[in-house]
Design brief:
By secondary structure, this protein is α/β, with parallel strands linked by helices. It has two domains: 262 residues, 3-Layer(aba) Sandwich (Rossmann fold), CATH 3.40.50.300; 31 residues. It contains ten helices and ten strands. The strands form two sheets. Strands 6-7-8-3-9-10 form a six-stranded mixed β-sheet, with helices on both faces. It has a four-stranded antiparallel β-sheet with strand order 2-1-4-5, with helices on one face. The termini are far apart. The N terminus and C terminus are likely disordered.
Length: 305
């Protein structure tokens, strides 16, 4: 899934389903899906509490994206049931689509437009009042105000991903699906996206994210489910999963710096200083690269002459 789906154009919100406050945000029971002889999902069961971050962990081909497609009504299951925000995904697909937002594996932003213009566009497509104010609020929430008037094509990977998630929040959907949200991002950009995801849950949004990164699930998730060969083989909190292993021996071990500590000590931790400095460096690098290229072309022409 690489493109923002059509349901992103839906109305702002819909009335809650009956008794949905008491229900989990997502309920999946006995879900199965096959492509001819290939059984992708083999009876998947889990629930996601409202306002929590649920990580679906698994290797490539485990069935994570197929499951997200079913929950977002892009694909029909062969058997089993699934409810999102209190609505059955098969019987009330339209209501489900108005309750969710889906962000695929790659940022689906219009690179010709500025960051603010991308947000205004989605707000207008949703027929919301004062789209400019909505855009400005989201730019501030995701630390993109300084870059709001710049074309999205000039954004770093982390900035582009944050803009993508911000676009998903327009209309205040109660449930968001993030499919491999940090795939292909550098370490600094990954941490920026992690912070954005944490803020979503703190604001009451239910987040289901798929990932193959163990540290990502460990850092973000309230609960973690491991999907293997089409089945959920374990589901619990990080503490509960750790109890599956023998108790650790208590020993005094001097803490060594993590690779993350080393990385930011070497490159400088400018995450809280905004993106302007990094972008300026990127711009200077681009100009230096262009200048070097021009010099090289001149030398080549001179040698030919």
């Amino acid at each position: 899934m690489t493109l923002r789906q059509p349901f992103m154009l839906a109305a702002m919100s819909i009335p809650p389903a009956t008794s949905q406050v008491q229900e989990p945000a997502i309920q999946v029971q006995g879900l199965e899906k096959s492509y001819k002889e290939l059984r992708v999902l083999r009876g998947v069961d889990f629930e996601v509490t409202r306002g929590s971050i649920f990580a679906l962990l698994g290797s490539n081909g485990a069935g994570k994206t197929t499951l997200v497609k079913i929950l977002s009504t892009l694909l029909k299951a062969d058997t089993g049931t699934a409810r999102v925000n209190g609505f059955d995904v098969a019987a009330r697909a339209a209501d489900v689509r108005e309750s969710i937002s889906l962000t695929g594996q790659f940022a689906a932003v219009d690179e010709i437009l500025s960051g603010r213009e991308n947000l205004v566009l989605v707000a207008r497509l949703r027929h919301l009042k004062d789209p400019g104010a909505i855009a400005d609020d989201l730019l501030g929430r995701f630390s993109l105000t300084g870059a709001g008037t710049r074309r999205a094509a000039t954004y770093s990977g982390g900035m582009r991903r944050r803009l993508d998630i911000a676009m998903s929040l327009i209309g205040n959907p109660p449930v968001i699906f993030l499919d491999e949200p940090t795939a292909g991002l550098d370490p600094g950009a990954r941490i920026e996206v992690w912070q954005a995801v944490r803020e979503l849950a703190e604001g009451g949004t239910t987040v289901l994210l798929t990932t193959q990164y163990l540290d990502e699930a460990e850092q973000l998730a309230d609960r973690i489910a491991i999907l293997h060969q089409g089945r959920i083989i374990v589901n619990g909190t990080l503490a509960e999963l750790r109890q599956l292993l023998p108790p650790a021996r208590v020993e005094y071990v001097e803490r060594q710096p993590s690779l993350e500590d080393v990385f930011f000590a070497v490159v400088g931790d400018d995450r809280d200083a905004g993106d302007t400095g990094r972008d300026d460096r990127d711009d200077r690098d681009d100009r230096d690269g262009d200048a070097g290229k021009g010099s090289q072309d001149h030398e080549t022409w001179s040698s030919r002459k």
